[in-house]
Amino acid sequence: MAAMAALRALRAPLLKTRLRGFGTAEFPEEKPQFPGASAEFAERLEFIQPNVISGIPVYRVMDRQGHILRQSEDPQLPKELVLKLYKTMTLLNTMDRILYESQRQGRISFYMTNYGEEGTHVGSAAALDDTDLVFGQYREASSCTGGTRWICSWRSATGTARTRAKGGRCRCTTAAASGTLSPSRRPWPRRSLKVPLPSSRCRRSPLFARDPDHPGALSAVGAAYAIKRADANRAVICYFGEGAASEGDAHAGFNFAATLECPIVFFCRNNGYAISTPTSEQYRGDGIAARGPGYGLLSIRVDGNDVFAVYKVTREARRRAVAENRPVLIEAMTYRIGHHSTSDDSSAYRSVDEVHYWDQQDHPISRLRHFLLRRGWWDEEQEKGWRESSRRMVLESFSAAERLPKPAPQLLFTDVYRELPLHLRRQRGALQQHLRRYGQHYPMELFETGGDPPIAGPEPSPVQP
Questions:
Q1: What 8-state DSSP symbol labels residue 438?
Q2: 3.40.50.970, 3.40.50.300, 3.40.50.150, 3.40.710.10: which CATH number matches 71-276+284-338+359-403?
Q3: What are the tens digits of pLDDT across the range 321-373?
Q4: Residue 421 CB burial class (10 angstroms; 0-12, 13-18, ≥19)
Q5: pLDDT on residue 360
């Protein structure tokens, strides 16, 4: 009897193992061998709930009062660079106010402000290298001319006052749709664009998608793949908003970048609203950063109102992208204090109290100002003097831009096709014929004469109405 009891005790665990997963020498334990996923088998029918995983935390370095929360996370930036960050952010703010007012006066056609998002633009721009490629959306127009170029030039020991004047003039001239010159002083063709974006080439070249409402992710990934093939030790950064992350191009870009292992940083500004659509109506998941792991991207969420945190995250993302040839997704949490654009009235879809809270309680400029005041690197007298000088600088640049001639009308038909197609040649001919007959009724003295060299071949006759 004792022998039988011992035999049953020996067979019991073996039987349990067989029932669980046939884990015996005769029936080895099975594991999924499918090439499309890395997972285990499950014997219970369970759907994955969208809220099963807690939200991705928001990385920050300092609180709203400018206190460094953890000394080990302090980027230890030199005083000169911190002051440069602050002056760039406040100058960008001053530029926005003047150009916004200019649009209301009818002096420019369109403008998009950066109120509340200065930390994302300037912090990320400061973390890049001079040779990196910047694919901006539309708010990064100010970042690339106002932030990236100035911070970049500071590293290159370019004269501060001269650099600020150049960057401010670039932004003002593009807002006035007049253009500017390239750094080498070669004439860079002026263009009148639907959305005023930089048309000049700065040392860290900003590249913009054909339609600035879309993120340009596919173009950015293509550039990053070319950089990888050339082993150029450079990175690409692609800016977009959380609304643009709903576009198919963004998802395709994520997938291409991961599978091709491209050195690119996807930088999403989650400012709460895509034009008039709040985030609650845009997606049901945990923001944009939560999508990264599904595509195989390194992902992180950062406090976009903390310029130090944005700088650290972008700098490390850029390093990993270059060193490891892998894409990184950054979601910068911030708030769009201003209207979406000069053609938008945000009071129609959000409360004044909500905007007032973010403007007064959690603004990236005031947070950095608190830090500077605590360190003794800034005071009220310097603040007042800088505000006055920066306003004067922008006004002078804008006045100079207004005096420049407007682009030649013929440039409406350039910059899209290498060989102008028939329908555009007909339209160009119709415009030329119209101006020959009725040009005296237009202020042609305000426009440049000529345009791009004529295209070889006879000009087709314009289609008569």
A1: H
A2: 3.40.50.970
A3: 999 999 999 999 999 999 999 999 999 999 999 999 999 999 999 999 999 99
A4: exposed
A5: 94
